[in-house]
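Milestone M4 deliverable, item 7.
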Amino acid sequence: MKSYFPYLIALLLAVLLVHQCERNVSDNITSTNNIAALTDSVSYYKNKLGTSTASVRTLQLEAKDMKKVIIEKDKNIAALTSEFSRLKSITSVKSQINLPPVRIKYTEPIANDSILPLKFERKGFNKTDWYNLGYKVTQDSLIIYPLSVPTQTTIITGFKRKWLLGRQTLTTDVTNSNPYISVQEIKSAEVIVPEPLYKKWYVWLAIGVAGGAVMASN
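Output delivered:
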C-alpha cells in the first residue's frame, strides 16, 4: 500500500490544481463580462418573429454583490426581493406603450345647430403618472393621439418558502409599476447545468476517506 501513497497524493494535488485553475479562469471571464455589462447600453434587433427585441449584457454576481449593486440601490426591488429566501436572477425593464393615432368615425356626423358652428374642432391633452392621452374632436370623428402608457417591469426568480423551515419552491414573480397593466400569463423555465463530478461534496469525502485510510495503513 505504501507504494501507492505518493501517487494518491499526486492525483489529489493535480485535481486541486485543475479545479483552482478552472476557477481562476472562470472568475477572470466573469469579471471581464461584468465590466462590459456595466457600460453596455440597450441594443435592438429584428428577431425571427419579425418584431423588435431589446438586448443587453447580463451581470453575474454573487449574493452579497447582488445586494450591494442591485437591491440596496432600489427600494422597490428591495421590497420585492424580501419575499424570497434565495435569489437566482433579477431583471428590471422600463418600457412604454406608444399607440399610433386612433380615429373613431361617427356613424352619423354631429348635426349643426345654433350652438355648434358648421365645422368645429376641439383638442386636449391629459397627462398622468400612468398614461398620456391627447385627443381631437371634430364634427365627424374622434382622434386619439398621442397615447402612451409607461411602466417598469421587475422580474425576479428565486426560491420562496411559506415558513422558516418549509420547503423551498423555485418561483418567478413579474411586477408592473403601472396599476393599469396586468399580467395575464407567465411561462418560466430554467436550464439545469449538471455540476462537474469533481465539485460534488461526496467525491471529495471519498478522496479524503481513501487518503486517510492510506495514511493510517502506513
